[in-house]
């Protein structure tokens, strides 16, 4: 006999809201009755759908199915900064990275029925129970890191709550996943009789509600997808939310300087806090309060209202709430300071300016301090994640899609769960423990320690996490994560390791072995091929998964790997994480370092932002903090990381935001220079600066600005060169196509000349006319991949029309680097262009299908110029007329030239009738795939 394990949920917030034995009928609950009852029990679910969220549009498996998002109308004039919901950031694909769109996929899903039922074993049966895997993979002893602090997991949790939030299934009558339930919205984890959970509380299952099923971006519901409710961009949505109505409520409507609401206490007998705390549920609408995940049944000793914030999970643990507090204070301190400096600024301008700074500082800490510790130097470099030391970043590329990937959210970035410690210790300003240590389980949804200044509130919480060691990266979890997650007082709870494995199956994530291949590791045929996994763990996995390498779940396989050098996670997770953070950097038009047309900050502002660190933020915002280690992710005992006075860290110089600053005398930092140009013609004749400028404005408009403020000259080998001074942001100068042009087709990279064979010059101006019709943009890089403009060399030609030419005599060292060139063209044609009549190769005549079979129509969903490759996965056509689920053959050809895929020279990562086609740009010698269309051969009567 089993104890019913019941989940009460409605809406999107149940992930943090499961509890046991409290059967509640959500439909009868009146609004406003969500306050916990005296027994500490939850009296209702959260029957509320936040305003601004699209309502579910239809029902599948009796569960609301989220409709596919409609493309917003983005204003013609370019939006200047992040919209609350993240739309209109990418001007080619308005929805890229926005809230309420599907998670993307790095690999096609693997569902048992190809549509949406959880993955099963390659041998056909069920996969081993996620709970059995979880318990078997635990070591007897929990290990603490000798190097990393608890700030690593907790900053990770805070920043990922800016990137992704995946809701569970819901329906008006609730979803009740008691053990034995046959509700298709449930995917419970079975518990065996020898399990601690059964022995203690006779539990026969751990309830898991499946994620809300949604349509894909093509509005097809043939294959189950999952939703991201928040903006993928690192835009401070933790603080500001992901929709305008939420943001409006979180703003302090009484403030005329653009402040955010702060907590007003204290009817509950808490000592009021002197430093601001997060606003409380009773200060906002019922609807907003109820949107917060804050289950009373878990731990609400004194009936305090929950905090409200931009992200619904802000109450999940006190360290998380402390990070929210830090940035709330930061916002309010910035607007306060700026209102003094710019007395004429209105509340909106103050607010938006502070918001831009908060978003930038989240990026600074994440890329500047956090990711290097997690990924190590190799992966930082491989994915181009390092911040520039100076100057603007010119890597913005509208073809990158910032949207969070399913495997990142559901597996790779959950790596932090294994680092979370068993206890939390608060530290005084003098770095000694203060107040009682809290067991992790007692910190879940317990905001009490932050409500008062006793023991230092959030300040001592963050001093604690930057001092104490995290657990090590492995498959062993703190007991409170592994058995007591969200446990009601006196009870045991859930198992997050088991949930994570189960969630991967729920989402149809392919197994670990497939992701190994994606990450550049060897595809395993037997367990001993998993050489990245230590021997004993590999053995345990082999037994658990009954010798089937393809069955191993991504999460447990990834966690089992040894760390990459200089980092924490193993190579498979490092790949997925690096890939994601690259997309979030290159694919974000408002990335804080962006130059070009998308500049958010002046050079002076950029400079002061770059010098900021998490240490300084904690120093400044966590009131009584006097000293801090320079890198809060490393223990103070690590060489070079001893605590230093807060005054020794650079502070944020808000004078850089003072109006009139750009006209101030400090011109050096507030102007930008064009590249250097030769003041001679190609024939060697001298020309005047004015003449040159006219030439450049016509021929190389991206390299100069329309209004020149001044110039500077120098002499190279006795010949004069000049560069022009422009106001910040007015030199377009991107090696990538501007975001708002209609995308064309890229040519292959060409490297027709090398400096040695041409006497030290590099001339890439020939040849291109044979292919590119209607050139839009040129991209030039050294053969090692450095953008031409970042080399400091001087070019004679650099335009989509004239091509590219580097002359050795213009260079200070007398020689050119070796460059490669490609063009973005309206059309690519074969052979020389003859009077506007492209001689496109005629499409090959179709081979007819063998009798009893038929070919599907040709389809192309993805364009390799838009993303990191061409993805023509079969699941995209499931359910469409003319296609079938199990084709016997697949063909692919270039969309434009109709050239057969076998003749293009591309290599394919996936090419099979069962999965479709995947061509990774990075795997091609010229770093870009052809754009393919595919078709499938189906049995005549098949579907
Ligand atoms: C006390 C600490 C934490 C607790 C109690 C916690 C709990 C949870 C829970 C209950 C879920 C939902 C699981 C599901 O139903 O699928 C979740 C999701 C997740 N967690 Fe944690 N977590 C903690 C810390 C962290 C850390 C340190 C990281 C990373 C560094 C992290 C990353 C994630 C990610 C990426 C997700 C998926 C988010 C989504 O797609 O909605 N968490 N966590
Ligand atoms: Ca965000």
UniProtKB/TrEMBL annotation:
<dbReference type="InterPro" id="IPR019791">
    <property type="entry name" value="Haem_peroxidase_animal"/>
</dbReference>
<protein>
    <submittedName>
        <fullName>Peroxidase</fullName>
    </submittedName>
</protein>
<keyword id="KW-0325">Glycoprotein</keyword>
<dbReference type="InterPro" id="IPR025155">
    <property type="entry name" value="WxxW_domain"/>
</dbReference>
<dbReference type="InterPro" id="IPR037120">
    <property type="entry name" value="Haem_peroxidase_sf_animal"/>
</dbReference>
<keyword id="KW-0732">Signal</keyword>
<dbReference type="GO" id="GO:0004601">
    <property type="term" value="F:peroxidase activity"/>
</dbReference>
<feature type="domain" description="WxxW">
    <location>
        <begin position="746"/>
        <end position="825"/>
    </location>
</feature>
<keyword id="KW-0479">Metal-binding</keyword>
<dbReference type="GO" id="GO:0020037">
    <property type="term" value="F:heme binding"/>
</dbReference>
<keyword id="KW-0349">Heme</keyword>
<dbReference type="Pfam" id="PF03098">
    <property type="entry name" value="An_peroxidase"/>
</dbReference>
<keyword id="KW-0560">Oxidoreductase</keyword>
<keyword id="KW-0575">Peroxidase</keyword>
<dbReference type="GO" id="GO:0005576">
    <property type="term" value="C:extracellular region"/>
</dbReference>
<dbReference type="Pfam" id="PF13330">
    <property type="entry name" value="Mucin2_WxxW"/>
</dbReference>
<dbReference type="GO" id="GO:0006979">
    <property type="term" value="P:response to oxidative stress"/>
</dbReference>
<dbReference type="InterPro" id="IPR010255">
    <property type="entry name" value="Haem_peroxidase_sf"/>
</dbReference>
<feature type="binding site" description="axial binding residue">
    <location>
        <position position="417"/>
    </location>
    <ligand>
        <name>heme b</name>
    </ligand>
</feature>
<feature type="domain" description="WxxW">
    <location>
        <begin position="855"/>
        <end position="938"/>
    </location>
</feature>
<keyword id="KW-0408">Iron</keyword>
<keyword id="KW-0964">Secreted</keyword>
<dbReference type="GO" id="GO:0046872">
    <property type="term" value="F:metal ion binding"/>
</dbReference>
<feature type="region of interest" description="Disordered">
    <location>
        <begin position="748"/>
        <end position="773"/>
    </location>
</feature>
């Amino acid at each position: 006999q089993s104890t019913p394990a019941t989940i009460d949920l409605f809406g999107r917030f149940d992930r943090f809201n499961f509890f046991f034995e409290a059967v509640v009928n959500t439909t009868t609950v009146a609004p406003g009755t969500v306050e916990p009852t005296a027994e500490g029990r939850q009296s209702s679910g959260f029957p509320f759908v936040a305003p601004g969220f699209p309502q579910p549009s239809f029902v599948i498996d009796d569960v609301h199915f989220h409709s596919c998002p409609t493309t917003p109308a983005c204003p013609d004039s370019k939006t200047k900064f992040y919209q609350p919901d993240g739309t209109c950031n990418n001007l080619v694909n308005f929805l890229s990275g926005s809230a309420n769109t599907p998670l993307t996929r790095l690999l096609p899903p693997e569902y048992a029925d190809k549509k949406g039922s959880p993955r099963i074993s390659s041998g056909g049966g069920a996969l081993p129970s996620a709970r059995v895997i979880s318990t078997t993979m635990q070591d007897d002893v929990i290990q603490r890191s000798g190097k990393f602090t608890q700030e690593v997991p907790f900053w990770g949790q805070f920043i990922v709550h800016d990137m992704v939030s995946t809701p569970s299934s819901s329906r008006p009558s609730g979803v009740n996943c008691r053990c034995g339930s046959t509700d298709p919205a449930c995917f419970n984890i079975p518990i065996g009789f020898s399990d601690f959970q059964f022995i203690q509380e006779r539990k026969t299952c751990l309830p898991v509600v499946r994620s809300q099923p949604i349509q894909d971006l093509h509005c097809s519901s043939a294959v189950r997808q999952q939703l991201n409710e928040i903006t993928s961009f690192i835009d401070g949505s933790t603080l500001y939310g992901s929709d305008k109505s939420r943001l409006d409520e979180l703003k302090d409507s009484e403030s005329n300087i653009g402040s955010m609401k702060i907590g007003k206490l204290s009817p509950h007998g808490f000592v009021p806090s002197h430093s601001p705390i997060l606003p409380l549920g009773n200060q906002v609408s019922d609807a907003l309060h109820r949107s917060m995940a804050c289950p009373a049944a878990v731990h609400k000793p004194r009936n305090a209202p929950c905090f409200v914030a931009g992200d619904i999970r802000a109450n999940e643990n006190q360290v998380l709430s402390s990070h929210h507090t830090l940035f709330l204070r930061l916002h309010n301190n910035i607007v306060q300071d700026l209102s003094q400096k710019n007395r004429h600024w209105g509340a909106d301008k103050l607010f938006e300016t502070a918001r831009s700074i908060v978003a930038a500082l989240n990026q600074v800490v994440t890329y500047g301090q956090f990711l290097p510790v997690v990924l190590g130097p190799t992966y930082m470099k491989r994915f181009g994640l390092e911040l520039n030391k100076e100057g603007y970043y010119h890597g913005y590329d509208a073809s990158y899609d910032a949207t969070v990937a399913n495997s990142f959210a559901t597996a790779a970035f959950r790596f932090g769960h294994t680092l979370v410690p068993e206890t939390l210790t608060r530290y005084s300003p003098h770095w000694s423990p203060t107040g009682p240590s809290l067991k992790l389980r007692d910190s879940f949804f317990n905001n009490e320690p932050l409500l008062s200044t006793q023991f230092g509130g959030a300040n001592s919480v963050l001093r604690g996490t930057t001092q104490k060691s995290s657990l090590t990266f492995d498959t062993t979890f703190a007991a409170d994560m592994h058995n007591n997650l969200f446990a009601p007082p006196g009870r045991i709870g859930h198992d997050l390791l088991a949930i994570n494995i189960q969630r991967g199956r729920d989402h149809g994530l392919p197994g670990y072995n497939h992701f190994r291949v994606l990450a550049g590791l060897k595809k395993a045929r037997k367990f001993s091929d998993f050489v990245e996994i230590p021997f004993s763990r590999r053995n345990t996995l082999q037994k658990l998964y009954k010798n089937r390498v393809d069955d191993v779940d991504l999460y447990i396989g990834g966690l089992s790997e040894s760390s990459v050098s200089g980092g924490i996670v193993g190579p498979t997770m490092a790949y997925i994480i690096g890939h994601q953070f690259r997309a979030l950097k290159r694919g974000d038009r408002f990335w804080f370092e962006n130059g070009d047309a998308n500049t958010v900050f002046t050079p002076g502002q950029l400079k002061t932002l770059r010098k900021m660190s998490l240490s300084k933020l904690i120093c400044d915002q966590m009131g009584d903090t006097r000293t801090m280690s320079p890198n809060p992710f490393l223990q103070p005992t690590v060489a070079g990381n001893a605590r230093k006075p807060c005054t020794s860290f650079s502070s944020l110089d808000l004078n850089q935001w003072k109006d009139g600053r750009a006209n101030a005398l400090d011109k050096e930092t507030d102007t930008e220079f064009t590249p250097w140009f030769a003041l001679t013609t190609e024939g060697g004749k001298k020309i005047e600066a004015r003449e040159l400028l006219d030439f450049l404005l016509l021929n190389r408009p991206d390299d100069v600005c329309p209004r020149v403020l001044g110039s500077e000259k120098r002499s190279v080998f006795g010949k004069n060169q000049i560069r022009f001074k422009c106001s910040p942001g007015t030199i377009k100068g991107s090696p990538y196509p501007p975001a708002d042009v209609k995308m064309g087709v890229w040519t292959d990279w060409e490297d027709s000349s090398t400096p040695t064979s041409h006497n030290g010059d590099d001339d890439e101006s020939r040849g291109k006319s044979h292919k590119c019709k209607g050139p839009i943009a040129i991209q030039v890089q050294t053969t090692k991949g450095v953008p031409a403009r970042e080399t400091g060399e001087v070019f004679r030609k650099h335009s989509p029309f004239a091509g590219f030419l580097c002359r050795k005599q213009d260079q200070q060292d007398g020689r050119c680097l070796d460059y490669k060139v490609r063009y973005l063209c309206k059309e690519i044609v074969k052979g020389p262009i003859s009077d506007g009549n492209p001689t496109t190769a005629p499409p090959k005549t179709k081979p007819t299908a063998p009798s009893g079979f038929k070919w599907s129509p040709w389809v192309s969903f993805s364009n390799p110029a838009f993303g990191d490759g061409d993805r023509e996965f079969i699941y995209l056509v499931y359910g469409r007329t003319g296609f079938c689920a199990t084709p016997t053959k697949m063909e692919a050809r270039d969309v434009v030239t109709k050239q057969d895929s076998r003749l293009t020279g591309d290599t394919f990562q996936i090419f099979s009738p069962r999965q479709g086609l995947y061509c990774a740009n990075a795997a091609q010698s010229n770093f870009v795939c052809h754009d393919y269309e595919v078709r499938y051969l189906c049995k005549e009567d098949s579907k």
